[in-house]
Design goal:
The complex is a heterodimer of chains A (185) and B (445). Chain A has five helices and eight strands. By secondary structure, chain A is of the alpha/beta class. In chain A, helix 1 crosses helix 3. The radius of gyration of chain A is 15 Å and the shape is globular. Chain A starts with 5 loop residues before the first strand and ends in a 5-residue tail after the last helix. Chain B is α/β, with parallel strands linked by helices. In chain B, the strands form five sheets. A five-stranded parallel β-sheet of chain B has the order 2-1-3-4-5, sandwiched between helices. Chain B has a five-stranded parallel β-sheet with strand order 7-10-13-6-14. About 3% of the residues of chain B have low confidence. Classes of the chains: A alpha/beta (185), B alpha/beta (445). The complex binds zinc ion (2 copies). One zinc ion binds next to helix 5 of chain A.
Chain lengths: 185, 445
C-alpha cells in the first residue's frame, strides 16, 4: 500500500531487478522517503524520432507526469533506450525542474566501465544519475561543487568522480523545498 | 558555477523550450523571443548577459538582429545557433561581434564549456570594474547633509538605533546615501572605535565573494599562496556593512544566515571554526519582499537582517535640501579644480529644483562636478548643467516632474545611440536602475 509521500520508481520495459533495487535504496537513503516500484508504461515508442534514431525525453516526462498515481510525490523512470532533447545530441537523463517527473537512461552509462567492479560501477552510476534527476524535481539546480551529486557531469568520468551526497548548500535548499511541500523531514 | 541572464531567440518553440529548460537547470535566468524584433524590444528593457540567436529567423535576419543587439549593448555576448547549411553565415556573424556559434543539435559538453568560458570572461571584466569602483569609492566620501524634515527624521532614527546591538536594514534608491547612514550608525554605537568594514555585495564578483568574506587557508585553491583573513574577521569588534545585500547569491545567503545565527564561520579550505563579534548593517535598493516571493531571497535571512528598518528618502522627496547640497558640492569641486566659480545662479538652482533626480544625491554630485568643469563664468548657469540642455527646457505645456525625468532619459539614450553603459554613467545611476526606469516609463527606441 502506497503512503502519502512516496517516490514512484518506474522501470520501462525490462530492467534488471538488482539495478532497480539499488536505485530504490539510494533514493530512500538520500530523500528519506519510501519508494514503490510501479511500471507506469510498457514502452516509449510514441517518443521515438525516426530521423535521430533516439527517444525524445521531454515527451516521456509529460506522459509520466500524466500517469503518476495520486500517492506519488515524484516519479522516476528508468529506461535502456538512448534519450535526446531537440537542442542536444543526447542526455543521460532529464527532469521537470520543480515538477513531478524524471527519467534516467542507462544507454550511455555503460560506456568505459572499468574491468574490475564492472557491475557495481554501472549500478553506482545509474543510482547517482537517478538521485540527481530526482533532486531536480525538488527544485535543485546544478551545483559548482564537483563532489556534490548536483554537479553537472559533462562526461562519464565526472559521473564517477562525484559522490552520492549533497553539499551543505544543496542540502539546505532541499530542506527548504521539503518544508514548502510540507513533507516531514 | 556563476549564473547568467540568458535570452533565447529562435522561431521554433521546441528549440526555445528545449534549450531554456536545459539552461534553467544550471540556474540561469531564461527569457525567450520568437523573432529578432521581439528580441530587440526585450533587450532594450532588460539587462542580458548572453543571447542565443538563431541565424535563420522569419522577418529580421539573425545577422541583422546581431548588429542591432551590439548597438544597444556591446557588452552582451551573442552566440549564434545554426544548422549545418548556414555555417558560412555564422562565420560572417563572428566578424560582426558574435562570441561563437553552435551547430544544432549541440553536444552537451560543448554547450556547458562555452557558457563557462563566457562567464569566466565576464567575471574578469567585472573584477576590473570592481577594482576601479573600489578606487573611486575611496575618493568620494561625504557626510550626510540635510535640513529637510525627512532627513531630520533619519538623523533621529540613527541616534536611537546606534546604541542598540540589533541588525539594521537600510533601504532606499541608489545614491541616497545608505552607506553614509551606516557609517553614522557605526560612529555613534559602542562599536564606534572598532573597524567599519564595508562589503559591496553587488560589485564583488561571485567567485571572489566567498574568500573575500570568509578568508581562506593557504592552499585552499590555486591562487591561495598564503592564509588570508576575510572581511568577517577584519570586522571583529566593529561593524560589518553589507551593501546591496539583495544581490548576493543563494549560496552566500545560506552561509551568511549561518554566521548570523551561530556567530561562527570557516575560512575557505579551513576546518577550524572562527568566532568573530560584530554588528551587522545591511542595505538594499531592492524590494526584498518581492525578491522573497520570486524565490530569489531567503525569508529567514530577511528576518535576521530586518530587525530595524531605516528608509533613506529619495532626493525628490527632500528637494528643500538641494540648495544646501549643491552649494556643498560646488565648493568642494571648486577647491579640487581651482576654478573661480563663486556661486550657483538662481536660474540654475530653479532648474535643479524642478528636476526629479533619479540618481539622487550622487547624480546631483556628478551634475555639479561636470558643471564646474565646463563652467566659464563666475557663477554656474543652467546651460552648464549636463541635465538641462537648452532645447529640453522649452516646454510648450507644463510638464510633471515624472515627464521631465522621462524626457531626460529618452534624450540621453538617443544622444548615446541607446548605449546603456554610457547613458547610465551620464545619468549617475547604475545599469539596473536605468533598465528599471526604461521599463517603468515604457521607453522604446
Ligand atoms: Zn542535472
Ligand atoms: Zn551542491
Amino acid at each position: 500500500m502506497a503512503g502519502r509521500f512516496d517516490i514512484v520508481i518506474s522501470p520501462i520495459g525490462h530492467m534488471e531487478p538488482d539495478l532497480v533495487e539499488t536505485v530504490c535504496q539510494e533514493v530512500r537513503q538520500m530523500f528519506h522517503l519510501d519508494t514503490v516500484v510501479v511500471p507506469l508504461m510498457a514502452d516509449v515508442e510514441y517518443a521515438f524520432d525516426r530521423e535521430r534514431n533516439q527517444y525524445h525525453s521531454t515527451r516521456i516526462l509529460a506522459q509520466l507526469a500524466e500517469l503518476a498515481p495520486a500517492c506519488a510525490v515524484k516519479v522516476l523512470a528508468l529506461t535502456r533506450v538512448d534519450l535526446f532533447i531537440p537542442i542536444l545530441t543526447f542526455v543521460y537523463g532529464e527532469a521537470q525542474l520543480g515538477g513531478t517527473a524524471s527519467i534516467v537512461s542507462t544507454s550511455r552509462l555503460k560506456d568505459n566501465l572499468p574491468t574490475l567492479r564492472l557491475r557495481e560501477c554501472f549500478f553506482e552510476r545509474t543510482a547517482k544519475e537517478a538521485v540527481h534527476e530526482l533532486a531536480h524535481t525538488f527544485n535543485l539546480r546544478h551545483c559548482k561543487d564537483e563532489t556534490c551529486i548536483m554537479h553537472y557531469c559533462r562526461n562519464i568520468r565526472d559521473v564517477d568522480r562525484k559522490q552520492n551526497l549533497l553539499c551543505r548548500y544543496c542540502r539546505t535548499l532541499l530542506e527548504d523545498e521539503f518544508r514548502r511541500l510540507r513533507i516531514p523531514i | 558555477m556563476d549564473t547568467a541572464t540568458v535570452l533565447i531567440v529562435d522561431d521554433e518553440m521546441i528549440m526555445r523550450e528545449s534549450l531554456g529548460a536545459w539552461l534553467e537547470r544550471d540556474g540561469h535566468e531564461i527569457h525567450t523571443a520568437e523573432s529578432g524584433e521581439d528580441a530587440l524590444k526585450l533587450i532594450e528593457t532588460h539587462p542580458f548577459d548572453i543571447v542565443f540567436l538563431d541565424i535563420k529567423l522569419e522577418g529580421m535576419s539573425g545577422l541583422s538582429a546581431l548588429r542591432h543587439i551590439k548597438e544597444i549593448d556591446p557588452d552582451i555576448e551573442v552566440v549564434m545557433i545554426t544548422a549545418y547549411a548556414s555555417v558560412p553565415s555564422a562565420i560572417e556573424a563572428m566578424k560582426n561581434g558574435a562570441y561563437d556559434y553552435l551547430l544544432k543539435p549541440f553536444e552537451p559538453d560543448e554547450l556547458s564549456i562555452l557558457i563557462e568560458k563566457i562567464l569566466e570572461h565576464r567575471a574578469q571584466f567585472q573584477e576590473n570594474l570592481f577594482l576601479r569602483h573600489q578606487y573611486q569609492e575611496q575618493n568620494r566620501f561625504e557626510s550626510l547633509i540635510g535640513q529637510s524634515e525627512s532627513m531630520q527624521e533619519v538623523f533621529r532614527l540613527i541616534r536611537d538605533v546606534a546604541p542598540m546591538n540589533s541588525t539594521v536594514l537600510i533601504t532606499g534608491e541608489t545614491g541616497t546615501g545608505k552607506g553614509l547612514a551606516a557609517k553614522a550608525i557605526h560612529t555613534h554605537s559602542r562599536w564606534g572605535d572598532g573597524p567599519f568594514v564595508a562589503v559591496n555585495c553587488g560589485a564583488i564578483p561571485e567567485h571572489l565573494m566567498e574568500s573575500d568574506l570568509f578568508g581562506h587557508e593557504k592552499g585552499a585553491f590555486t591562487d591561495a599562496r598564503d592564509t588570508k583573513r576575510g572581511r568577517l574577521e577584519l570586522a571583529h569588534g566593529g561593524t560589518l556593512f553589507l551593501d546591496e545585500i539583495g544581490e548576493i547569491s543563494m549560496r552566500m545567503q545560506i552561509d551568511l544566515l549561518r554566521v548570523l545565527e551561530d556567530g561562527v564561520f570557516y575560512r575557505v579550505g579551513g576546518t577550524r571554526s572562527i568566532e568573530a563579534q560584530f554588528r551587522v548593517i545591511a542595505a538594499t535598493n531592492r524590494d526584498l519582499q518581492a525578491a522573497i516571493r520570486e524565490g530569489k531571497f531567503r525569508e529567514d535571512l530577511f528576518y535576521r537582517l530586518n530587525v530595524i528598518t531605516l528608509r533613506m528618502p529619495p532626493l525628490k522627496e527632500r528637494k528643500d535640501d538641494i540648495p544646501l547640497l549643491a552649494e556643498h558640492f560646488r565648493s568642494r569641486f571648486v577647491q579640487e579644480t581651482n576654478k573661480p566659480i563663486d556661486r550657483i545662479s538662481r536660474e540654475a538652482l530653479d532648474e535643479m529644483m524642478l528636476y526629479d533626480w533619479p540618481g539622487n544625491v550622487r547624480e546631483l554630485e556628478n551634475a555639479i562636478e561636470r558643471a564646474v568643469v565646463v563652467g566659464k563664468e563666475r557663477f554656474l548657469k543652467p546651460e552648464d548643467l549636463p541635465i538641462f540642455q537648452a532645447e529640453c527646457r522649452v516646454a510648450p505645456e507644463p510638464l510633471s516632474l515624472k515627464e521631465i525625468e522621462m524626457n531626460h532619459i529618452v534624450q540621453i539614450l538617443a544622444e548615446n545611440d541607446w548605449n546603456i553603459a554610457k547613458s547610465s554613467k551620464i545619468l549617475g545611476i547604475d545599469r539596473s536602475t536605468l533598465y528599471n526606469k526604461i521599463q517603468r516609463y515604457q521607453i522604446r527606441k
